[in-house]
Amino acid sequence: MTTHLPPVSNKASWSDSIIVRDVDSGEALDLTDAEEITLRLREPRTCAQVLEASLSGGSIERETSTGTITFTFTADQMGALCPQTYEFGLLITWTDGSVDQVALGRVSVLKGL
Asked: pLDDT tens digit string along 34-57?
């Protein structure tokens, strides 16, 4: 799935949700067997990772039956970002050890006041 998330400020906390769907059926994925969920934000020119949220780190929550993944970054974390468009990726590591890239996209970080 590719997507663009709504613009966010680099002066405020950022919380958003993504519903992960099966590519073939369009049904929400059952996340019961997700061992780890990671969202990474990177700077597109250098490919340097600038932020990461994870299930094990407590910055991602999941609704197993609805396929909803909610992530949160603090205002302090966001404050380290320069205003520009970043790329993000959402990865799921399943209990069998396989890893799926379930979302790729972009988000614009705006200079907050």
From this structure: 999 999 999 999 999 999 999 999
Of 19, 28, 22, 108, the C-alpha closest to 69 is: 19
Which CATH number applies to 2-110: 2.60.40.10, 3.30.750.200, 3.40.50.2300, 3.40.50.720?
Answer: 2.60.40.10
pTM for the structure as a whole: 0.92
Number of H helices, E strands in the chain: 1, 8
Query: Regarding beta strands 49-54 and 68-73, do their DSSP bridges make them parallel or antiparallel, or are they unpaired?
Result: unpaired
Closest CA to 14 of 72, 53, 54: 72
